[in-house]
Amino acid sequence: ALLIGLFVQCPNDPLIYLEEKIKELQSKLKNYQLHMPNERHLDLSWDMLIDDEFRQQMTKMIGSYLNYLFDLESGEVLAPQLYEKAYFFYSNGLLRRCFCAWKWYIRKVRKWQMKMLQYTLKAEKFYTTKTLKVTFQMWMKWVQFQKMQQTLAAQHLQHVSDQLLCKIILQLWSALAKQTRKTREYFERLERGELDDESDTQLAQPGDIKDIISLLPWSVILQVFSYLGVKELVRAAKVCQVWKVIAQTSSLWSKINFSPVRKQIEDNDIANLLRSFRPFVIQLSLRGFSNIGWATFKSISSRGYNLGTYWKV
Predict the structure, then answer these.
(1) F-box domain: from which residue to which, for each copy (predicted)?
(2) Which of 69, 193, 296, 310 could disulfide-link to 283, CB 3.0 to 4.6 Å?
(3) pTM given for the model
């Protein structure tokens, strides 16, 4: 009766409901014993603890089922198969609920694991990106430092190269200036007639000699150049510095013969040659000339006392 009352009425607080109904049964039992002292048991029905309002709401079918299940006054006993079926139904319900709860838990755990995996991948990606960024920044600083070092080294090397180049240029310029001054002084002395034939070789340095003629003794060189005419001596003076010194030797210009080149040479050229070598000219030949001008006569007259005997026309 208590279970049926709980099943039908579904009170908010089952414990209070059971406590009240048990007290009600105890009071009914006392009243029953007072009226019938010889009876110790109270006749109970399955719906005696159901309130009237709930009893009116029950259908006849529900009442017959409950009466069949809980009315044991007829002496009938339920079959064990029914108990077994009820037990399996209840256990299957519990198993189904546990399985659904387990599936929900597994689904939730997997969802949480997937979310944690996504967070882990995102964290790894962020860490990798941050590490690469820091490494790239450090590499950029190192590259900039190396470029700056290379630039400074290149500037230093360029400065050293410029200094060495300036030093070499100054040394070469100094040597060239000394050689030029020495050459200029030599020709000035040569024009003044202060040098003899042997001193003419002082200008020629061993490093400047590059031909076979220059390697010969000075007397042999003068003998070879003595066979040259005026035209050949002028050309030889243009070959190199050594030949220029040899061609300007005073002994080669002591006897000048303009006859072979009388058709090629002009009056001004004769005057210039006589003006350059007039201190050394002893014999002058103008045989065959018909176009001698005033410049030539003026140059001859300046050294006429030396040409009085040897002037040939």
Answers:
(1) 210-256
(2) 310
(3) 0.32
